[in-house]
């Protein structure tokens, strides 16, 4: 059976002292987990977190990566730069980047390509807004978002991780029910299988108000292979409980 993946997404939170405290508490409690564990930290703290996590089971992730290789792109961080800091995963296409930074499906697909080209696993986020769900467009939206990544990456798509994050569930305390999440995951799994013979090894994560109380029921669904955790990843006890549930 493939190992589940529990990835914390700190978003724009933390500082030197808080990061150290959080990671030390996570490392003290994580033991030898049955799942893969990663933390996606603000880029300013990659070096700090790389050194705190050195030699541990917890892997380092970035929250974004540039669609460009190098050059005159002020403020951007390339996949090669992330590699310098031992980054193993990079989130691409988080709904907050799509929403606040106007990232298109095509830009997200290019970011995934850049990450893969440097040996970094992209965690490709897809998900519908509340308006889209209520209009019955959930499947259409997530399939469109994923299709762009499949188109740009061909057979390499079997190397990605996908996170289904319904926008209405992010930071709202409103979690998708395990059945709602499973339904969308099954659609994404079928789409990936049609694109790659190795699609079974792709981890499909759920994200959106996953917490210590609801993680076990979400993670017990057949096509939910892990979680992308926002708020609950900022508290060591909650993050550790979710890791234990996986
Ligand atoms: P919350 O867990 O805070 O809802 O955030 C989910 C998320 O966006 C993870 O990427």
In DSSP terms (H or I, runs of 4 or more residues), the helix count works out at 10
SS content category: alpha/beta
Kindly report the spatial arrangement of strands forming the biggest sheet: 1-2-3-4-5-6-7-8
Poorly predicted runs:
none
Shape by Cα distribution: globular
Topology, pairings included?
Blueprint: E1 5-9, H1 16-30, E2 36-41, H2 46-53, E3 58-62, H3 79-84, E4 87-92, H4 95-100, H5 105-117, E5 121-126, H6 130-134, H7 138-153, E6 161-164, H8 178-195, E7 204-207, H9 215-219, E8 226-229, H10 236-245
Helix pairs in contact: 1-2, 1-10, 5-7, 7-8
The structure holds 1,3-dihydroxyacetonephosphate.
Explained architecture:
This protein is globular. Helices cover 41% and strands 16% of the residues. Helix 1 (16-30) packs parallel to helix 2 (46-53), helix 1 packs parallel to helix 10 (236-245) and helix 5 crosses helix 7. It has a single domain (5-245), classed as Aldolase class I (TIM Barrel, Alpha-Beta Barrel). The chain has an eight-stranded parallel β-barrel, surrounded by five helices. The two termini are 13 Å apart. The model has no long low-confidence stretch (mean pLDDT 97). It is built from ten helices and eight strands. The chain has helices at residues 16-30, 46-53, 79-84, 95-100, 105-117, 130-134, 138-153, 178-195, 215-219, 236-245; strands at residues 5-9, 36-41, 58-62, 87-92, 121-126, 161-164, 204-207, 226-229. By secondary structure, the chain is α/β, with parallel strands linked by helices. Residues 9, 94, 165, 170-171, 207-210, 228-232 line the site of 1,3-dihydroxyacetonephosphate (13P).
